Structures are given as structure tokens and as C-alpha cells.
Amino acid sequence: MKSQDIRKEFLEFFKSKSHSIVPSAPMVIKDDPTLMFTNAGMNQFKEYFLGNSTPKNSRVTDTQKCLRVSGKHNDLEEVGHDTYHHTMFEMLGNWSFGDYFKKEAISWAWELLTEVYKINPENLYVSVFEGSDDRDNFGLDTEALELWKEIVPEERIIFGNKKDNFWEMGDQGPCGPCSEIHIDIRSDAEKAKVPGRDLVNMDHPQVVEIWNLVFMQYNRKANGDLEELPAKHIDTGMGFERLCMVLQGKKSNYDTDVFTPLISEIEKITGSKYGKSEETDIAMRVIADHVRAVAFSIADGQLPSNTGAGYVIRRILRRAIRYGFTFLDTKEPFIYKLVSVLSDQMNSAFPELKSQESLMQNVIREEEASFLRTLEQGLVLLEDLMKDSADKRISGEKAFELYDTYGFPIDLTALILRENGYELDEKAFEKELKKQKDRSRKATQVSAGDWTELGEVEDEAFVGYDQLESDVKIAKYRKVESKKKGEMYQVVLNRTPFYPEGGGQVGDKGILMSSEGEVIDVVDTKKENNLIVHFVKELPQNPETNFEAIVNKTERYNTACNHTATHLLHQALRSILGTHVEQKGSMVQSDYLRFDFSHFSKVSAEELEKVEDFVNARIKEQIGLDEKRGISYQEAIDEGAIALFGEKYGDSVRAIRFGESMELCGGIHVQNTSDIWYFKITGESAVASGIRRIEAITGEAAMKYFEEQAEVLKEMKAGLKNPKNPVKAINSLQEENTALKKQVESLLKDKAKNLKSELKQEIKNVGGVNFLSKKVDLDAGGIKDLAFQLGEEIDDLFLLFGTEQNGKALLSCYISKSLVSEKDLNAGQIVRELGKYIQGGGGGQPFFATAGGKNPGGLNEALQKAESFIK
Ligand code: ATP
Ligand code: MG
């Protein structure tokens, strides 16, 4: 059975049991502060389990893109070393939201595996939660046990502890006991030796868990307590790649058709053969796995970067590059070449890969090239470190510096040191690493208390499209603490006019005014698992009274101008640069907007001007807003609306149209484009390879910008003594400046010539070396010229020049090549050593090197020391 058919069969099976098939949610999570990436199929349904919203269908099924590389579920270190854990994998699942429970979940899972997929039931083991005697104090899950007993003989039922049989998504959130289904795919001979039941949950590569049936019935609160969920749910997750391994009769996920095309492409590119050695096999598995994780993330809009989710993606890609570099000898970018294989293969289930193929290739290639450069540089630095180490031992601090400043991976450092017979102080390295982690954890840590519930949240709680003020009650609140912002409260209202941050637009600010006249500032609004939370510094005296929620209208209006301008900008870019332009991120604030998009070269000044004109023309046309709420996704797309990759859309969407521009968007917009007044681009830059960024301002901010420009012009004119034509005045100033520079240059050359003949007289013979160490009054370039000119005229020359410029010291050392090889002198080493006298450092080549420092007072001492090197 082909993997595609296996996936289809699963979805069809549950469709036949009245489940609706829904799309996978994006892998990168935006509205849940407790999770960075989707790590299980249930994440996108969390709001239903928590009762924050009601699903349209109480039974759904899907295949979900998951990534387990951070937080509670982190499999990264296993990946490649074993054959059944991936970073990115598909989780097949069926859900009941308050509908069926254990009985159906268990019997359908069994029916699908044994009757549809025809897996031999004798190879299957199931587990049941045995209970726990900790603070949760659970009993045995007798309900599940009785149900399983009707299907499987008791000797294939296993009792599992909390670690294996109580599923939790994270430290907080919905959870419950579970029953796992494990499979034994060993040969009969092996089975005869050790019974499969002894190997369940023992990390045996051929006795693995394939499906987990979770019986969701609790919510883990911040204080660790459990509370019953409002209703009982089913959440199941089956590893798609593992299922393929079973149904295709393979012993490793990497031998299924999910991975073989990638593995054979890696073989083709690297010339290594899969199955030859454990080391290269691991590297090939790592690369085949990681390219999937990285490609899927980029397609979902998450590019590699220096922070947050982007940094995790960058690290995954670097891990793949490193395994290639170390074990497959790949010194050129090559992982990007796997992207087309992957997107061809995945096209039917995940068309987003194919449509973004060239973007993914570009980004990955660029990342590879830059990290390979880092690796090369790191190797040089490491060699220097080894040369400088007398006791064949590299300190943890130095290794950490290599890792932290240059991105050079520690395991590679360790490997190279080992190969060269050096030792690494790993303990000290770990200590440094921990210090750094503590620092960044402290900076970001947020903890949330439990909700105090006062009332219900309405179904359509957001009323902010139509109202900026509204009579409200507080439905619940809780305390949150972040190291950055300190102590705050989150307040949820029964309904709210406040727009929660989303779609790039910032959250609304404003006030809550109580019926008793108390005023509470709302400093931010965000969405969390479909709840709209308002951030306030303090709670009202009487939270149960009536409030008026009032949005800050000026900020809201300016933000709306910028949001609509963003849509017009998107349209302008697509019409001027081409339809390859896709939105890759945006930031809409009250004072400016930022728009990232795919495009492969710098946007030229003329193009930017055209873009600006295009948008300003739409503003002048005074196009009215045409808003459609609650239309079906398909209807909107058919009408030409643009949807974004990596966004989660429900069945019913909101479409925003201004003339020819139509986008799916939940944000706030102006009523008429003329409200924007004016659109001005203030910057264009690169964010990543193939991604450009435009920054712009509108309305009030644009007005202020022009005023400031006028002020600058006024001051400039005054500085030029108010000429009639300031442009001409600047040009002539510049011409004059160029002429003067030329004069100075030629004067300096003469001076250097004189100096050269003076210095020649001063060179003395010290033990067969022509030696001079002296302070001179030239700049760095002049000194270098002088040294090389002297070097051409005089053999066996050793020069050390010191100079002071702008309060800084500079040492330059020149050594004839003959001396470098015969006398084993090294200018780089010499300046490094002498650098300490001027409180600085430097380096260079054995025949010419420089050191800069902040203490000119030490120059004389350094110059005096020079002679000791040739003695
Ligand atoms: P394991 O113990 O094998 O790590 P798990 O207990 O972490 O599995 P669950 O969290 O219950 O797994 O996830 C449900 C299913 O998803 C598992 O039964 C398995 O088939 C699959 N799965 C889990 N983690 C991975 C992974 N890293 N790569 C591939 N499949 C996975
Ligand atoms: Mg696991």
C-alpha cells in the first residue's frame, strides 16, 4: 500500500463513521503562549476541549503536521539515531468533542487496524492506565480495561504508568488517561526468544507505539490541580510514518516510500550509499528528516531566524548541515536540492509545498552557504586555539565562545579535538551554556495563575468591527507574571470591542470604566485559544460590577489606516513586481507598517516609486470598504480573495475588498481609502534570502514625516548660508572636497617618500636580520605601503611600526618571507603578543599583521620588546 493510500484510507474510514475531514492546522502556533509548534493533532482543537468555543461538527478527522523539537515533547536528539522518531511527522487522528467516548474510540481503532489495514492482531499489544498514588491519586482505568478485554486476550493487555498512559500536552491544559496500541514487527525467531509484551515501551525499534487513544476528561491547572472538563472527549493520534512502516512490511520508517525518494536523492548527491555504515546512515536519516521539518515550516510562513520559532528552525537545519559536513563530506550547499523531491512527493496532501518550492530552495540554500562559511571559519579558529594551547586542553569558556559567537557546534568541536588528541573541558562548557540559558529564560519567563470565573463569555464575543465602546461584564480574570513586564492581570469580558493582536495587527489599547467611575487601563489585547484577553496592570476594586469598555480611538484609526494601506501595498507589489509576490509576514501598528514578501532581488528605487504612486492613486480614488462577514472559505477564494499560507481559516471567513484588492482578513480597516491621506515608503531591505521587507507610514505619521523633512531642509539651507540653489551648493562643496583630498594624498605620498629614505638609514643589522622598530606618523594604509616598499628593496627585513591615531594605538609588523620560513617568525603571533601593551589584539598573516589597541601610552614599550623576538 502506498503511503498516499494509507493516509486516504484512514480519513475515509472515519468519514464513514460520520467524521468530517478537516485540514491540518499550520505547524507554527500563533495564539497559544504555552506552545511554539503544533506537537499533536489535538492542539488546534484545544479551544473546544476547554469549552472556549463550540465546534460545528462534534466528530472530525485529519492528518496533522507536527513538530516535536521543543518544550514537553522534544524528540530532536533521537532523530536519525533511531528509525521511528522524527522532528516533523504526520499525526492521523479522530476526535470526538463531547460526542462518543471510550467504547467507540477503542472498537473503531481496532476495526481499522485489523480489518481495514489487515494487521495481524497477534502482533498488537494495548495498554491501559494503571492509576497513580501521587497527588492526583487516580485509580485503574477499569472502563478501558473492560472494553479491551472484549477484543484482545488478556495477555496482550499491558498496564502502564503515568509517564506512558496519562497524556498531557504541556504543563497546563487538557489531559487524560490513554490507551496505547503497540506493534511487534520482529521476526518469528526473535519473538520466540523474547515475548513482545516484555519489550513494549522499552525503546525497541521494532516494538513501537503506533497509536495513542486519549480519553480527555481533565484540565491541568497552573497550580497543578486537575479539574474535570465540561464534557468528555476523544483525542487519538497515530504516527503516519510508523503506520506506513508496518503496512509496507519495513523495519524502519526511513525504508517506507515517505522517505526513500529523499534518501536516494541524498545518495545521488553525496555519493554515499545508505546501509553501508551506521555513521553515514544516521547522517542521511537526519538530513532526510530535517529537510521536511524546515521545508514545512517555511511553507507555513516561519523562516529561519535568530529568535523564537525561527531560531528553532535554524538550529534544525544547522543540525542537518553539520551531519552532512562531518559524516558525508558535503562542503557545498545541497540540502536545498531535496526540496523538489519532497514537494513532488507531498503535493497531493500538502500543495503548499509545491507552490512555494523556489522560496524554500532559496532560503535553505542561503542558510546552508552561510553556515558552511561559519563552519570553515570555526575550523580556522579552532586550529589557532589548538596551536596556542600548551597542555593540549581547550577550556570550556573558549569552546563556548566558538559556539556562542561563531555558531560553531560543540559536538563538532569535541570531535575535532578528540581526533587531534586534545581534551575539552566539557563540564565548564556545560556550565557556560547553562548560564546563558538561565539568562534568556529569566528574560522571557511567563507564568499564569488559574482563572477566577465570574460569568459566561458570549459565543460571538468580539463586537469591535462595529463598536468602539460597549457595555460589558468581566467573565474571568487571572494573574500573569512575566520577567519582562512584571505582574499583570488578564481579563476576559463577556463581549468586547477590543481587537486582539492578530494578522499582524497590534492589539487595541483603551480603558475599562466601571459603573462606579473607576478607570482601568487596558495596555494590550491578545487572543489565546480563541479567548480574547485584555492585559491590565491592576484589577478593578469590584470586578463583578458593570463596565464600559472603551477603545483608544486615535490609535485604532491610525492602525486601521496602516492595515488598509498594507492590503493596497500587497496589491501594488503583485501588480508591479509580479504575482510571485506573496505575503510572508506583516506588522501593523498605529505609527507604522511593515510588510514582508517573497521576491528575489532588491526592489529598485523606480519600482518603489511606482509602488508608492500605485497606493496613493488608490487613496485618491476614494474607494469604499466592501466587507463580507461569515461567507464560506471557498466562496471567498472563488471570488478572487487572497488567503495566506500558515494562517488557520475556519469554514466561514471575512473578506475585505477595496476595489481590486480582496483578502481574507480579520483585521480593522478604514471605511474609505481616502482616510489614509497619504502613503510613504520609508525603507526597503532584505529579511532573508528571497524575502524583502517594506516599511511605510500613512496619515498622521506621514504628515509628521514631511514636516520633519522640511525642517531638515531648512537647517541644511541655513548651514549652507541659504543659497538660491541648495543642490548646486552641495555639489560644488563636494567637488571642492574631492580636489582637496587629491592634494592631501599627493602631499602625503611625498612625505612617505622622504620618510622612507630616512628610515632606510635607521635600519640596523641584528644577528643577520635587518631590523627596525619605530613610531611613525602615518595612517594604517600608509604604513602598510611603506612596509611593503621597504620589503621590496631590503632582504631579511623585520619591521615593527607603531602609530597613534585619534587616541588609538596601532602596531604593524612586517617580516620578509625568507625570515618567516627560515627563522620561524610569525608576524600574526608577534602582534598578538605585543597587543597586550596597548590593551588590544589583532592578527593577520605570518608576513604582515596588525594589532589595534586603546592604550597609545604602551606603544613605546611594545616597540622596545620587538627586538627580543629575533634574538
Ligand atoms: P513515543 O513513546 O514513541 O515517543 P509518544 O508517547 O511520544 O510516542 P504520543 O505523544 O502519544 O507519542 O503521539 C501519538 C503517536 O504519534 C504515537 O503513537 C506515534 O505513533 C506518533 N509519534 C509520536 N512521536 C513521534 C515522532 N517523534 N515521530 C514520529 N511519530 C511520532
Ligand atoms: Mg515521545
TrEMBL record:
Cited InterPro entries: aa-tRNA-synth_II/BPL/LPL (IPR045864), Ala-tRNA-lgiase_IIc (IPR002318), Ala-tRNA-ligase_IIc_anticod-bd (IPR018162), Ala-tRNA-synth_IIc_core (IPR018165), Ala-tRNA-synth_IIc_N (IPR018164), Ala-tRNA_ligase (IPR050058), Ala_tRNA_ligase_euk/bac (IPR023033), DHHA1_dom (IPR003156)
Biological processes annotated in GO: alanyl-tRNA aminoacylation
EC number: 6.1.1.7
Record: residues binding Zn(2+): 563, 567, 665, 669
GO molecular function terms listed in the Swiss-Prot or TrEMBL record: alanine-tRNA ligase activity; aminoacyl-tRNA deacylase activity; ATP binding; tRNA binding; zinc ion binding
GO CC terms of this entry: cytoplasm
Claim: Cell cycle is one of the keywords in the record: no
Cell compartment(s), UniProt: Cytoplasm
Cofactor(s), names only, from the UniProt record: Zn(2+)
SMART domains for the chain: tRNA_SAD (SM00863)
Record key words, sorted: Aminoacyl-tRNA synthetase, ATP-binding, Coiled coil, Cytoplasm, Ligase, Metal-binding, Nucleotide-binding, Protein biosynthesis, RNA-binding, tRNA-binding, Zinc
S-adenosyl-L-methionine in keyword set: no
Classification via Pfam families: DHHA1, tRNA-synt_2c, tRNA_SAD
Boundaries of every Alanyl-transfer RNA synthetases family profile domain copy: 1-708
Catalytic activity: tRNA(Ala) + L-alanine + ATP = L-alanyl-tRNA(Ala) + AMP + diphosphate
Main location: cytoplasm
Cofactor: how bound: Binds 1 zinc ion per subunit.
Coiled coil: 730-765
Family, per entry: Belongs to the class-II aminoacyl-tRNA synthetase family.
Domain notes: Consists of three domains; the N-terminal catalytic domain, the editing domain and the C-terminal C-Ala domain. The editing domain removes incorrectly charged amino acids, while the C-Ala domain, along with tRNA(Ala), serves as a bridge to cooperatively bring together the editing and aminoacylation centers thus stimulating deacylation of misacylated tRNAs.
HAMAP family: Ala_tRNA_synth_B
Protein function: Catalyzes the attachment of alanine to tRNA(Ala) in a two-step reaction: alanine is first activated by ATP to form Ala-AMP and then transferred to the acceptor end of tRNA(Ala). Also edits incorrectly charged Ser-tRNA(Ala) and Gly-tRNA(Ala) via its editing domain.
Name under which the protein is recorded: Alanine--tRNA ligase
Phylogenetic lineage: Bacteria, Pseudomonadati, Bacteroidota, Flavobacteriia, Flavobacteriales
